[in-house]
Design goal:
With 231 residues, the protein is an alpha+beta fold. The chain is 50% helix and 20% strand. The protein has six helices and six strands, in the order H-H-H-H-H-E-E-H-E-E-E-E. The protein has helices at residues 2-24, 34-43, 47-69, 82-102, 113-139, 180-190, and strands at residues 156-165, 168-176, 194-196, 199-204, 210-220, 223-230. A six-stranded antiparallel β-sheet has the order 1-2-6-5-4-3, with helices on one face. A hairpin with a 2-residue loop joins strand 3 (194-196) and strand 4. Helix 2 runs parallel beside helix 4, helix 2 packs antiparallel against helix 5 (113-139) and helix 4 packs antiparallel against helix 5. It is elongated, with a radius of gyration of 22 Å. 32% of the residues are buried.
């Protein structure tokens, strides 16, 4: 009995600690990512099912947090908002599957169905509300660093003005140094930006793409002005 109790505490403690480590070391430090892990640890009754499903949810959390934190881009990299609604829905599906396994004959005594349903539905709804709220707020907020900052180490980079107008917000910087325009273009390319007509743009997002574009202007052999904005 004592061994079983220690095992039950151990897998939950390790899982929560790993999830907290992932969130705490991410660029956004999004604590919402902990909700599905905490809920699953509270609902699971069998340590075998608890560990398997818990690790699957933890893997989802890593996928939704780490690539963006490393500055990776592409259609397989989740956007900052998708951790609220896409991640929560996927974690909910895994949790429901795990609880269904626990209801099989000779499985562990499952948590009450109504409690499980309302708890899981609660964080999914909270995720959608959070995504909608932040989406509206982001429409009127300045873009993040978006891989443009920090700028190339070989150049002197001075952040300029920022503002909003005509339904869009932007930030600027001035970079000076040897072959500044070429160095900035190489820097943007290394951060996932691709040339598109007069703009450099990059996209991330699994379901709803988040696109940021950067424009280069006032170019001289030793200086360039960069403006970036959410497209």
């Amino acid at each position: 009995m004592w061994i079983n109790e220690q095992r039950e505490r151990l897998w939950r403690g390790v899982l929560v600690a790993l999830a907290f480590l992932v969130v705490a070391t991410s660029r956004d430090a999004n604590l919402f990512g902990l909700f599905p892990i905490l809920v699953w640890c509270a609902l699971a009754r069998s340590w075998r099912t608890g560990v398997v499903v818990g690790l699957a949810i933890l893997a989802l959390l890593v996928w939704f947090v780490v690539p963006r934190g490393l500055g990776w881009t592409g259609p397989w990299v989740p956007s900052a908002l998708e951790i609220y609604w896409v991640y929560s829905v996927m974690a909910a599906v895994l949790s429901v599957a795990g609880l269904a396994v626990e209801r099989l004959p000779r499985a562990a005594r499952p948590a009450p169905a109504m409690v499980s349903a309302f708890t899981i539905a609660g964080y999914v709804v909270l995720g959608f509300v959070g995504a909608a709220f932040l989406g509206i707020m982001n429409m009127e907020s300045k873009p993040r660093d978006e891989g443009v900052l920090p700028g190339p180490a070989a150049l002197q980079v001075v952040e300029g003005d920022a503002g909003c107008g005509s339904g869009n917000c932007w930030r600027t910087l001035d970079a000076t140094g040897d072959r500044a325009p070429e160095v900035v273009r190489a820097h943007l390319a290394s951060r996932g930006y691709v040339p598109r007509s007069e703009h450099w743009c990059r996209r991330i997002g699994l379901v709803v793409a988040h696109e940021v574009c950067a424009d280069l202007s006032k170019e001289t052999p030793t200086s360039v002005h960069v403006t970036w904005y959410n497209n």
